[in-house]
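$ ./design --mode recover --in tokens.txt
reading tokens...
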């Protein structure tokens, strides 16, 4: 009878059994090292030798995949071949094709066609789930430039944008069809085919151990039926804000258009918030900043890791509930977990809270802890993949800073355009929603801002400022051009205090 084994040796043994049961051959030492998060191959080797000595397994020398569970013969399988794993392919909205060299997967030569060259891609997205292709799967592709109608292909469209879809030829165009009833097809007159899917590889063992602390927390929650809204945005839409912000200018842009400079060099936007003006202009050169560290990390996460943001948001959407909202909201009280979040996870958390909290309000207490309650409806959008990817694309061209407005604009030069949307000067006891960081924006800060605008104007910069319509602001900027505009305000628990409010648009030019 085999001798008792340690907990770690049992994990190694269980993984070997599971791997053999799925693949028909044993894992390599390197695969065991990665899968079990062991420090070195030599550590795996020690566990293997212990399992051999205790009578659980056999190993044949000089072979990479030559472990046998004692008492169970492995059927002889065909030789393994190495397939290059070239990168990620989206089963969703197309993204720029990015290759990574050096990684491979090993599969039996019996599992793929004997002719042609093959490569593998990891799938991101759920647009092909009705074809049995899920987020995280690996698809093996046979290289070819043609395909029959209905085949699942790697398609390149719109100047190096790659996607995984079923292809159909229609009059004067191609239809790239998702295998997901909730998603719409793409139509293109030109499509480059890079290959046809011939095999799907799925890790049947749980990958929970590889998940971050945040994903582990989310996956423990029960699934929900609450979230039924789907994104109204389309793949080809112009990039737009991916979060809503109290005092954001998305609805004000039509009134601002005639005042925006027709030409300028560089663009600066301190007090970034939702970034409505930036997304409207989409300048080639821009510096965006805010004092809110979490907001800047959110923008960095969307810019640098949009697929990670989307992956976490999908999980959050599938589990959305009041209990989950509170767990995610309270992460900033659990410093050990919060400090381990990547920028992509910080972005997903902020977008989720922004989508699901009361009126999209961002507010923190004196400890910089988010303290807005959940909104009244659980039927929220949460994950708008198209908007996140398009925002990521335009953000890659610009500079992001966590900084005070003075630091942000100190290098601005003549003919640069600076748009300033600071926390508004309060016009009543009920209008103080300025705590988008734990520090407030006081009257002396308004004066300090005016001094910077004077300096920028003297340098020849084009400065536009939004602020509240009140005597203090009018007197402060009496030497500037001032226009009144009408803003819709809905952030009030009392309906009679909602409606049109006069604001000021102040310009140096």
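writing sequence...
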């Amino acid at each position: 009878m085999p001798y008792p084994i340690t907990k770690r040796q049992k994990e190694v043994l269980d993984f070997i059994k599971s791997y053999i049961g799925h693949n028909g051959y044993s894992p390599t030492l390197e695969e065991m090292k990665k899968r079990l998060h062991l420090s070195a191959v030599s550590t795996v080797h020690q566990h293997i030798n212990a399992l051999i000595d205790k009578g659980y397994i056999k190993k044949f020398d000089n072979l990479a995949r030559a472990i046998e569970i004692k008492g169970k013969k492995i059927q002889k399988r065909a030789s393994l071949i190495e397939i290059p794993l070239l990168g990620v392919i989206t089963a969703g909205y197309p993204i720029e094709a990015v290759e990574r060299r050096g990684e491979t997967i090993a599969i039996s030569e019996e599992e793929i066609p004997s002719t042609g060259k093959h490569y593998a891609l990891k799938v991101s997205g759920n647009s092909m789930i009705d074809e049995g292709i899920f987020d995280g799967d690996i698809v093996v592709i046979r290289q070819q430039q043609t395909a029959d109608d209905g085949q699942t292909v790697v398609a390149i469209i719109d100047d190096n944008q790659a996607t995984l879809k079923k292809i159909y030829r229609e009059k004067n165009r191609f239809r790239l069809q998702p295998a997901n009833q909730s998603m719409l097809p793409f139509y293109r007159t030109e499509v480059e085919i890079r290959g046809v899917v011939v095999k799907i590889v799925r890790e049947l063992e749980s990958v929970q151990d590889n998940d971050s602390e945040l994903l582990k927390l989310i996956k423990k929650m029960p699934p929900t039926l609450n979230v039924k809204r789907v994104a109204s945005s389309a793949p080809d839409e112009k990039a737009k804000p991916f979060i809503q912000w109290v005092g954001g200018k998305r609805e004000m842009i039509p009134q601002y258009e005639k005042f925006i400079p027709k030409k300028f060099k560089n663009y600066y936007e301190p007090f970034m918030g939702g970034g409505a003006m930036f997304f409207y202009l989409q300048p080639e050169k821009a510096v965006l900043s805010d004092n809110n560290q979490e907001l800047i990390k959110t923008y960095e996460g969307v810019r640098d890791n949009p697929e990670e943001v989307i992956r976490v948001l999908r999980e959050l959407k599938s589990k959305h509930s009041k209990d989950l909202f509170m767990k995610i909201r309270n992460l900033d009280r659990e410093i050990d977990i919060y400090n381990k979040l990547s920028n992509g996870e910080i972005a997903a958390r902020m977008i989720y809270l922004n989508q699901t909290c009361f009126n999209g309000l961002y507010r923190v207490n004196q400890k910089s802890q988010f303290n807005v309650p959940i909104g009244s409806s659980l039927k929220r959008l949460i994950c708008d993949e198209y908007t996140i990817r398009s925002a990521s694309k335009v953000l890659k061209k610009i500079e992001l800073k966590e900084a005070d407005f003075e630091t942000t604009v100190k290098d601005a030069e003549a003919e640069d355009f600076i748009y300033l949307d600071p926390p508004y000067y309060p016009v009543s006891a009920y209008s103080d929603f300025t705590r988008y960081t734990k520090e407030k924006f006081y009257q002396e800060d308004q004066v300090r801002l005016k001094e910077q605008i004077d300096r920028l104007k003297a340098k020849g910069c084009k400065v536009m400022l939004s602020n509240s319509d009140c005597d203090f602001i009018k007197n402060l900027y009496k030497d500037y051009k001032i226009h009144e505009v009408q803003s819709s305000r809905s952030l009030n628990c009392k309906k009679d205090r909602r409606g049109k409010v006069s604001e000021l648009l102040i310009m140096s030019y």
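exit 0
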